[in-house]
Please model this.
Amino acid sequence: MSAEARVQAAVETAETSAAAVEVEIASQPPRPGELNFSAPRRTAKPPRHLADLSAPERKKALAELGHQGFRAAQVSQHYFGHLADDPAQWSDVPAAKREELAGILTPKLLTPIREQTADAGTTRKTLWRLFDGATVESVLMRYRDRTTMCVSSQAGCGMNCPFCATGQAGLTRNMSTGEIVEQVVAGARTMARGEVPGGPGRVSNVVFMGMGEPMANYKAVIGAVRRLTEPVPDGLGLSARHITVSTVGLVPAMEKLTNEGIPVTLAVSLHAPDDELRDTLVPVNTRWKVSEVLDAAWRYAAVTKRRVSIEYALIKDINDQAWRADRLGRMLRNKLVHVNLIPLNPTPGSKWTASRPQDEAEFVRRLQEWGVPVTVRDTRGRDIDGACGQLAAAAK
Ligand code: SAH
Model:
């Protein structure tokens, strides 16, 4: 089957199964400044998948159903190692057992309902339907030296940042570890099959910068990080250093992450150096102030020896003034930090837009003067609404 035919077939399956879904999955758009830390209570949980389980838990799950424990490692090898999602390819498993084992360990979690490409096919955004009809997006970005999967950790988001499309739609629900991991594995399959221009390849990097606030779905996100970093067949075998977890600054969760002992890259979405402005751009700042968020970031850097990334969307005449660059530079100088400036991707109906080129250049220059490493993020996938802050699957 061609990639297009596969997507088309998937679309049809998704449409039929969505019709059968009775669970109410729509989120409520939040009022200005309103925060939502816990998703509405769910009636049903996503099906349990081997990616939700550690290797010993997989064995146990099989044994409880009367299967031999070693089948867990075989199926895991197919899932994470060979990226073979079709049980017909599991040649070391008796044909008669394949479907049953697949049903237990690799139930279908994500159904692609739309695929969009940009940048000559090297950026691919996928809209996925989850088992209950909730929708999320992920973005694959192939560069010369790496391929990054940008994944969602929640359907929607409760953090209500006014410049972010996802935030404006509200929170639908948390995703499970399996649902998060499966986005990366799906990208890895696409790369392995040579469906992205540049020949067969692998996914090397993962950024939790799709829909959702990863630190508000802590347990599932840590589970996903563990699964992504455990060696094959227990997990996908990625380097923790190539995984970035991005947060609005939920300080207690940042502290927990510091103590996990997993050296992922931590990104903090700062967007303003002063509380007065940050209270409006990142409403959770009314709970944890700029200084508390940065202190938590420096503790993370001290314990993990990892450079913390500060995300700063440059918004014309809102947060791009030279004095704010200086204030930011003064706060960040001599720290283990890197600043990522993101030209604002305007969302539908937004009164805000990206900074003027000269203001962006001056912002960069001032940070450099303070000795702070800084880069301006590229705008991959902008024309397919696949760039930062544009993911709004639930609203479509
Ligand atoms: N909730 C997490 C991760 C998701 S967003 C977080 O906020 O960090 C990933 C990054 O895109 C964040 O830094 C976010 O602030 C930024 N972003 C959101 N909307 C944007 C927009 N319209 N233009 C540019 N960047 C945006």
Notes: The two ends are 28 Å apart (CA to CA).
